[in-house]
Design a protein that fits this description.
The strands form 4 sheets. The protein has a 5-stranded antiparallel beta sheet, with helices on both faces. β7 and β8 form a beta hairpin. It is built from 28 helices and 16 strands. It is globular, with a radius of gyration of 31 Å. The longest helix has 28 residues. It is of the alpha+beta class. It folds into 4 domains: 86 residues, DNA Primase, Chain A, CATH 3.90.580; 139 residues, DNA primase DNAg catalytic core, N-terminal domain, CATH 3.90.980.10; 190 residues, 3-Layer(aba) Sandwich (Dna Topoisomerase Vi A Subunit, Chain: A, domain 2); 178 residues, DNAb Helicase, Chain A, CATH 1.10.860.
């Protein structure tokens, strides 16, 4: 794929706003000058994900990830750097010169994930064209969708398709057009055995499954001809880009409405989602026929903490909801349930009723999990005392999964009222369950491997301290490099404007100090090259770096605040900034130099202890570095 011109990259970074990009995937709320939300990388109840619109960076404190808008897309969607840039260019209507088609060799040499994304995208367009343009597609697939009541707009919005009956139709198309056979097989769209290629989804209508950014990850296919040996619905297999436990069908199309309504409806099937959308209720997603997973719940919780489960009226559908209820309660979701009348499901009900009637039904039938679960279990336990006892314990076990004490108390009182049981007895059972959970947690903690022990030898401690000092000076240069290095003790006419970056560079280079950590040495070299060009890099320059390791350091520097408390925790004692930059920079620089000089003197002592050492040379070197140490001590106001 052709390289994106540098001027286009600059335009993308200049145009894009990180809060807008991340806001498509995470519900962000104002927190001072920043924005906060739940981490899209970890399952958490308390928001620790921070976005800084001013600095155009994000920082996820639970996972440690951080960077700019491009990095975010790379981390979230596992995109390559060019893919993330192209996604952002598309979002902001920035034209990128068309890349020439890839040759077979280039596709084979490219990353397998990117090749699978490519073949999946090709398949999506192929199936959609087959549905709309081929005779079989129109006669079989399109007729089916129209009989189900789906409009052309719905078909286009969800990019529905049709896979021909011929066993090798797509495989032949892909190979003829020189797409990667390795990627084709890895995607699971087509497979190969001793007799040759064959298509997984032949003779089915196709439901593309999108990621939250709109890329197709896989497919669901429904067979149209009665065949006792074939599954009614068939999904893509797990592959480099499709992981069913982390995907929700329709989330790409529903996410904005979910945020707007601050509520999501969760259904089971593809057509449930389509019918709800077409009816005007667009904040709906599906688990794609798979059992609900923690990953799916965490993904949905990025957009709202209010979820209503919609299940078929049959007993199997209702019982299936119990496990999903408990999982949502554990993750702090405010979960409610709607069950449809016997013989109805979300698809058929939405097709048979107007938007107003559907909204009214959902509002009327919506129940909290206690009312719903109790009403179901009471029927099953009718007339059987033992089953009733088990039912009470089952309900309290669900309440124990609610993460906060206030919620537990409210639900205990509600359960006591509905079950006509003394609330004290329910509290006793709740405390028993919580106590058991605590004991199990302590047992697991005791069995966990011991934490890594910090180095204790003098040389190891020196290395650790030196690393931290190098980290601090680099962070300071990134965060405050453009600021003026002014000493408030000087008279105004004596002040010569100089940036912090220039002052620190002069101090370090004059004394021949070098960085021992390769990454920090690389960052310092980049700074030197920019300063030589009479350009002092600001925050916007640093956050545009492509190297993910450098960008991680930049994010840390722009996220961490240089407060006395945080530095003292690292045994680095600095004066409070108090809006005076000079003492902070001076102290940090000289402490960095001091650690380097101590390391140098230790090396010279080692050489002097050798029998065949050039004593005159090493003694002269030792004297030089020892004199520098004395000067540094004077600058640090140390008495030696």
């Amino acid at each position: 794929m052709a390289r994106i011109p540098q001027e286009i990259i600059e335009q993308i970074f200049t145009t894009a706003r990180i809060e807008e990009v991340i806001g498509e995937f995470v519900q962000l709320k104002k927190s001072g000058s920043n924005l906060k939300g739940l981490s899209p990388f970890n399952n958490e109840r308390t928001p620790s994900f921070m976005v800084s619109p001013a600095k155009q960076i994000f920082k996820c404190f639970s996972s440690g990830k951080g960077g700019n808008a491009v990095t975010f897309m790379m981390e979230l969607e596992q995109m390559s750097y060019p893919e993330a840039l192209r996604w952002m260019a598309k979002k902001y209507n920035i034209d990128i010169p068309e890349a020439r088609p890839q040759t077979t060799e280039e596709i084979e040499e490219s990353n397998l994930r990117e090749a699978v994304y490519l073949i999946t995208d090709v398949a999506t367009k192929y199936y959609h064209e087959q549905l709309l343009e081929s005779d079989a597609g129109k006669a079989i697939g399109l007729s089916y969708f129209k009989e189900r009541g789906f409009t052309q707009e719905t078909i286009a919005k969800f990019f529905l398709g049709y896979s021909p009956e011929q066993s090798t139709a797509f495989a032949d198309f892909a190979i003829k057009n020189q797409y990667s056979e390795r990627a084709l097989e890895a995607s699971g769209i087509s497979m190969k055995n001793e007799r040759g290629w064959y298509d997984r989804f032949r003779g089915r209508v196709m439901f593309p499954i999108h990621s939250v950014s709109g890329r197709v990850l896989g497919f669901g296919g429904r067979i149209l001809q009665s065949n006792a040996k074939a599954a009614k619905y068939l999904n893509s297999p797990e592959n480099p880009i499709y992981h069913k436990s982390k995907v929700l069908y329709g989330l790409y199309q529903a996410k904005q409405e979910i945020v707007k309504k601050d509520e999501a409806y969760l259904v089971e099937g593809y057509t449930d989602v389509l019918s709800f959308h077409q009816n005007g209720v667009k904040n709906v997603v599906a688990s794609s026929g798979t059992a609900l997973t923690e990953g799916q719940i965490a993904m949905l919780k990025r957009y709202t903490s209010n979820v209503t489960l919609l299940f078929d009226g049959d007993a199997a559908g209702i019982r299936a909801s119990f496990r999903g209820l408990d999982m949502m309660l554990e993750q702090g979701v405010n979960v409610r349930v709607v069950s449809f009348p016997d013989g109805e499901d979300p698809d058929s009900f939405a097709q048979a009723n107007s938007t107003e009637e559907l909204d009214a039904f959902l509002a009327k039938e919506r129940k909290d999990f206690i009312s719903f679960k109790t009403s179901i279990l009471i029927e099953e336990a009718a007339g059987d005392p033992l089953k009733r006892v088990e039912m009470v314990r089952d309900i309290v076990a669900s309440i124990a999964k609610v993460p906060d004490g206030i919620g537990q108390e409210i639900f205990i009182k509600e359960a006591a009222r509905i079950l006509d049981v003394d609330s004290n007895l329910l509290y006793q059972e709740l405390n028993r369950i919580l106590g058991l959970q605590q004991r199990q947690a302590k047992k697991q903690q005791a069995q966990a491997p011991p934490m890594e022990v910090l180095p204790k030898t003098d040389s190891e401690l020196t290395q650790v301290h030196g690393y931290i000092q190098e980290q601090c000076i680099i962070q300071l240069l990134i965060d405050k490099g453009t600021k003026a290095m002014l000493d408030d003790t000087l008279e105004e006419e004596d002040v010569v404007p100089i940036s912090i970056a220039e002052w620190v560079i002069a101090e370090i280079e004059d004394d021949g100090i070098i960085f021992a950590t390769p990454l920090y040495a690389q960052i310092f070299k980049m700074l030197l090259e920019e300063v030589d060009k009479e350009h002092i890099p600001d925050h916007s320059w640093w956050v545009r770096q492509e190297n993910p390791e450098i960008l991680a350091v930049v994010t840390e520097a722009l996220t961490e605040k240089y407060t006395l408390a945080k530095w003292e925790a690292r045994e680095i004692f600095l004066p409070k900034e108090q809006n005076i930059v000079f003492p902070l920079v001076k102290e940090t620089t000289f402490r960095f130099k001091y650690v380097y000089v101590e390391r140098k003197l230790a090396e010279l002592r080692h050489y002097l202890s050798q029998e065949n050492a050039d004593m005159d040379y090493y003694l002269n070197e030792f004297s030089k570095w020892n004199s520098l140490r004395q000067l540094i001590n004077e600058q640090l106001n140390r008495v030696v």
